[in-house]
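Data's thin. Show one?
=====
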Amino acid sequence: MRMPDDGALAARTEALARWAAERLGLGGPAPLEPASCDASFRRYWRVRRGGESWIVMDAPPGLEDVRPFVRVARLLRAAGLNVPEVLAEDVSRGFLLLTDLGERLYLDALDEASADRLYGDALGALATLQACVDPEALPPYDRALLAGELGLFREWFLGRHLGLALAPAEEALLDETFATLVEAALAQPVVAVHRDYHSRNLLVTERHNPGIVDFQDAVAGPVTYDLVSLLRDCYVAWPRARVEGWALGYHDLALQSGILREEDEERFLAWFDLMGVQRHLKATGIFARLWHRDGKRGYLADIPRTLGYVREVAARRRALAPFGRWLEERVLPCLGADGERVTDGCAGALASAAGGRSRHREEGP
């Protein structure tokens, strides 16, 4: 699937400008400014008038559906979370008029001085999401969905991007690893899950920080999913000790809020680690798909960091040790620092795979 051609996009933009102007009571077409880039087919525009501003979403029907966004926005606002209010909607055309939460992303604001404060706010909002939004109101993050996401890594990254033809033993290793990750996810308490809770979808706001966007894919799923999305972000990395400190702080907050019923820091960190591997393998597949299917190359540069998390966890978790060795020997030599395929490295990986095995320090599970 690709975006409509330039002519169709221009026509949609013109229709969107007229629609927004009518809703805002402007004399002519609304002056649209690009508001953000998106990994989906949605486009976002900002409209300014005097000291006020609004966001207009264009979600082409057949490629995107605005109804989940509208439904989840109302659920999250009812819980007291700072998400855009839907001021007007045209579902048939895929147009939404939203309140504007601002332009300052967490990604641009996070630094050593601000990290504890900003993550503290984000973790507080996450506790509200998990304690106050009924997961029964959301689709289930079930076995089929978790496994299907992992399939993106196999299809789009290993197959399409790196061009690797896997031997039966390698396919079996992937199947076993994916099953381990899915079972670990399904073992966790079920809560409302934003599903993309990270620095590009959180906005620094003066009141009720953070502003939260891109929540339309929310599901009922594992308690650590959004936590690992935030703290092991595909776009910004922190030292392991600091990340685990934040994660254990959230463990305590979740106990106090009734999100968790049993205190078990070791199990919680194991869930956190394995959930992160599932998410990062999925994200790697999505980044490859964005380039090969949708023509969006920019996300390739995030693949090395994303797989770096997988590499680090697999070196410590016994259940992932065989996968970690395979990743080191067969996959990572094929990947350049910019996320592109390195053909010479792949040749070296094949030779390495036939030889000795690397050693890792492992811990349970």
